[in-house]
Specification:
Blueprint lengths: L3 E2 L2 E2 L2 H4 L5 E9 L3 H10 L6 H9 L9 H4 L5 E6 L3 E8 L25 E13 L2 E12 L2 H33 L2
Antiparallel strand pairs: 1-2, 3-7, 4-5, 5-6, 6-7
Helix pairs in contact: 2-5
Length: 181
């Protein structure tokens, strides 16, 4: 299940090498890797009507929705590697109405193991195809801290996974559109 790239494993493996649930999406972009990475880091999800609508359904903040802005609701940028990969994490009880988000620091993510929670991490990984083309993938992984949270999250995941996938694919499309300009 480990995603491999030239030269080894991905950063995501450092944070969630084992996981109970996952999804992965990718596309190719006609732009050099440095431009794609810059676009990933500043991409504004509020450019998408679909994402704005889905965020509204979950009572998530409105306005600009960028990686930095996601930190206001508990997401943490866990690590960035050489403009090739960024890993973002979140801890909570996602299956509850409030989301039960635990405000942790990035350096606490790996050690967090309190029963009754789930840890989610996702990445954006760039693979240069040539000087002017880049493969961009995003993988989401979820690890549940106990059997009860795994069952609870499993029911939630069955309902939310299609929408989560839509957000990830839309995010990739926005990056492609903006990077190819």
């Amino acid at each position: 299940m480990t995603q491999r790239v030239k030269g080894g494993t991905v950063l995501l493996d450092e944070f969630l090498p084992s996981y109970h649930f996952s999804e992965r999406h990718g596309l190719e972009i006609d732009a050099p890797p440095d431009k794609v990475f810059e676009t990933v880091m500043r991409c504004d999800l509020s450019e998408s009507h679909l994402v704005r609508w889905l965020f509204r359904l979950r009572n998530l903040p409105r306005g600009a929705i960028k990686l930095e802005g996601l930190e206001r609701i508990g997401f943490r940028i866990l690590k960035v590697w050489q403009d090739r990969e960024v890993v973002i994490g979140l801890v909570g009880r996602f299956w509850t109405l409030s989301g039960g988000i635990v405000p942790i620091r990035a350096d606490e993510f790996e050690r967090f193991d309190a029963a009754g929670y789930a840890k989610a991490a996702f990445n954006f990984l760039l693979e240069p195809l040539d000087l002017e083309r880049t493969a961009l993938t995003t993988e989401t992984r979820i690890w549940c801290t106990c059997p009860w949270s795994k069952r609870s999250f499993g029911f939630y995941w069955a309902m939310i996974r299609p929408w989560s996938g839509l957000i990830r694919r839309e995010w990739l499309r926005l990056v492609r559109r903006n990077a190819e300009r």
